[in-house]
Amino acid sequence: MSSEPPSRRPAFGRRGLLAAVLKDAAPLDLRILGRVLLHAIFVGAGAGAMACLFYYALELMTQICVDVLTGYETLRASGELLDVRAHAPTKPRPWLLLFVPALGALAAGYLVERFAPECAGAGANGTIRAFHQKVSEVRRRVMFIKPIATVLTLGTGGAGGREGPTMQIGGAIGSTVARLLNVSQRERRILLVAGMAAGTSAIFRTPLGAALLAVEVLYRDDFEADALVPAVLASVVGYSVFIGVYGESTLFETASHYPFVVSHLPLYGLMTVVLSVAGRLFVKSLREMQEYAERWPAWVRPAVGGLGVGALASTLAVLASHEMGQAVLGGGYGVAQAAITGADWIGTGLSAAGILALLAVVKLLAATLTVGTGGSAGAFGPTFAIGALLGGSFGQLARYVVGDPTIDPGAFALVGMGALFGGIAHAPLGSLVMVCELCGSYDLLVPLMLAEGIAFVTLRRASLYRAQKSTKQDSPAHPPRVMEVLSRMKVHEVMKMPGPYVRFSLGTPVPEVLRKVGDCSWQDAFPVFDDEETIVGMITPEMLRVLAAERELEPWLLAADAMQPAVVVKADDDLRVASERMLTDGLREVIVVDDDGKIVGFVDEAEVGQVYLDFLN
């Protein structure tokens, strides 16, 4: 209990407690939302333009370093739009395929370690971590270092995706726009999320799915509601910029129609259980590789992973086929396309099921080597590829075993793609919509919903992104709710009683009340007692201001005429109770009493507000 009167009282004003301590906790008001939407357009345009440059540079690097230099033609999805391929050598060079991924990763590793260590690894995890920091931002240099490092890594055959890096690049653009416009910390976070959505939307051509993913992937059991509308707008703008340059197309070619067959739902459910085992294995292998790689110098780690990827690719290319060697490299969109629509080199039936399962294992190993050693590549693309390969393998096996020609392995590949990523990323809605946008159809909506639900339950303890928080309450980006903080502290811990307090009887004349209140510098609630020393009311400064405004006070006016019902709390009540009493009655201060009704102190909104502000700091 304080023994000295406060020298400076925070100027909260009447009902100022809510305005002060709820400032950061209140929902985004419409005026701020309109401004954020305008800023989201700038972020979307910037992320879309950067995605166009990044995509071109990556395709050019891939076709020069892999197609031309090693002589192995890259496997591509049907919707990969750009073709700048020069004439490839007629004779493959597997010895170059062994070393090229390592050389690219080595150059990228040095660049990242020298200029922006946060660019190591997938990119999405670093962006999520930046969002949850107390001061949320992605450094401006990430806009330039991340794309260069990713082009060096993926363009030379690294086994990773391009969506994670574009998510980080978009987040950096959002943070940069926020800094230039000097907006609040809350708006910075929203623009960071908008940039994540815009980058993913542009490079993957999934505007709605990318927006849902951006607000969903930040948490395991929650989503960033305030950022949804800005993320949607930025995503639309980024997507529009990208297709304005490269044309409109879905990433994957699919069947014209996937009929819904109720009897196939148990098969989708069983496939998801199998995928859940693979998801846990993938996450575990990534974690162990990251821990093991920490023993090496940071700039060397990606090169070791690149050498492992090159060894896998060159071995399969020599011992099996050109296509199987290429399936190891890149994000795996080409091999996912083969799992969806089939390919001559895969075959059908049991042989196809075996080849696809083998490629899923190899892709898992390759992605672990690239991403787990800190290569600048995303885990997003490989996860989709592994899900498609296992889903396609399951579909081929199911059609052979069940003998049902209506089972389409391509449908199982697409559902597997969404279920695996949605489960380990804890983003079921975003991944569901993304798969529908990737194939340009919602025919598979029902089996996708079933698979996403099962994966969400079975993969609860596996998370692709370490930086995810469980809910908003676990994130520094969202301070605890005011009442939750106040309920942790008792009134007696902050109440004040700096010496004798001013009190009145029922018969005290109002002029005397005005004089005594004017001489008091610390008290705002003035108790009124009856002849039995029982509190019967209280006088507040608001009522006295009304009386003081009268030119002539009636001489018969007494304290009994100016008082209102007393508002009291007990010393053992928590501050939530005290704040609710003040807010309900429009008071700045309430009287604290013990169990016998004796006054033991006073607590006002300055003390309550300061408790919350101290907690935040």
Can you give a write-up of this model?
The chain is mainly alpha-helical and 617 residues long. It has two domains: 435 residues, Clc chloride channel; 135 residues, Roll (CBS-domain), CATH 3.10.580. Helix content is 58%, strand content 4%. It is built from 24 helices and six strands. The strands form two sheets. Strands 1-2-3 form a three-stranded mixed β-sheet. Strand 1, helix 20 and strand 2 form a beta-alpha-beta unit. Helix 17 packs antiparallel against helix 18. The longest helix is centred in the first third of the chain and has 39 residues. The two termini are 22 Å apart. The N terminus is likely disordered.
Can you describe this structure in just a few lines?
This protein is mostly helical. It has helices at 16-21, 30-68, 94-115, 124-132, 142-154, 163-181, 185-204, 207-216, 228-246, 265-293, 301-319, 322-327, 333-341, 349-372, 380-402, 409-425, 428-439, 445-458, 482-486, 510-519, 541-548, 559-562, 575-585, 605-616, and strands at 504-505, 526-529, 535-539, 568-570, 589-593, 599-604.
